[in-house]
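Feature request disguised as a bug report, sorry. It would help if multi-protein outputs had a clear separator. Right now it looks like this:
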Amino acid sequence: MPAQKPIRLIVGLCNPGPEYVDTRHNAGAWYTEALAQDLGAQFKHESRFFGDLARVKVQGEDLWILMPTTYMNRSGQAVLAVASFFKILPDEILVAHDELDVLPGQLKIKKGGGNAGHNGLKDISAKLGTPDFWRARIGIGHPRSLGLNQGVADFVLHRPSADHQNQIADCIEILLKNTPLMLQGNIAMATTRVHTEVDKAWKARQTPAKGEAGNAA
């Protein structure tokens, strides 16, 4: 496997405004907000970069954390502006986003691939001219897979149930714990650890604790 570059820009996809803060579509921003807090970084609105941007030194290197303040379908405008100005290559970018094709309580990391109808990813790929950036796919589930009679647009713009919120938060915590590896360029190791820990937590939730089995009487 070719050597992987350290991540220099982490993007949390979201819609701007308080009415969207707790909605499923803002799951990527939940991660970047938590990351900035962990690292002691402060966001500042930067109109030239079309978003809220934080800079922090990690092991002597600059890490940029971005939350676009355009709407989702124009996310690429902010990503391109930051990447171009600071000379950050696509394979040095991690985009955290909500993922309909992954259930709540699951999280997948991958590089490149399709956009699965996600307008934020679609615009970033178009603006960068390549899909070959890293993605942290935070599972929110699809209304059909969750047995809900709800349109997709309506679904992503509403907050998850308390149970799903907790599962998403657990995944974000695992991602946060392994982010330092990505910043060192050990993305393969980080990916393996994230997937292993998420799957372990998933299986634990599917197995009732001793004494919790239902009573048939």
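(second protein starts here, but nothing in the output says so)
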Amino acid sequence: MTTLTTAPLAPLLLRLFEEAAAATSPAISELSSDERMRLISSKTEYLDLYGRLKDLWLPVSREAGTMLYMLARSCRAQTIIEFGTSFGISTLHLAAALRDNGGGRLITSEFEPSKVRRARENLTAGGLIDLVEIREGDALHTLGTDLPDTIDLLFLDGAKALYRDILELVEDRLRPGALIVADNADVSPDYLARVRTPAAGYLSVPFEEDIELSTRV
């Protein structure tokens, strides 16, 4: 038995995934696919894009959530950084791993206030809020100070154009063997160029569709 597969977390996640699947956002239909990709790739307009999408959950898949839990357990993570909290589904999986690892600290960043409030509610309902610090604001600022000396796992699932910037912001604290998981990494070519260059200090492979799994060597 694990925290992930028992109450209160298991039934909570079941409900949250169902809510996420049913969520809609009128704002997304107003954008053409080309405009959406342009905004996703922009380093200056990402706040506008994700502000428009505040009603969408944008969660990891059920399989990806389970994978995050497994990776955090397997590396015995005690310190985790997450870029992009949204409504907290991935955060719940990572915090569950910390609980089953014996405790730790998860710092996650989200700029949309309504999502921060809901994520806190979900983490409280899941009995995991004591392990998580949610920092509200632009992650380029919130993750720029007061981080743990060593980081065991970094999960990137916020504005795709910032993946490389966030990695470089925290990488001097990544311990040897630390894991970096990037969702939707296929739309962040500069990030992929960084982690797929051995001289940069990483080994990296595409994993589970558009997830990139890397380790700090």
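Even a blank line would do. Unrelated, but nice: The chain has a mean pLDDT of 92.
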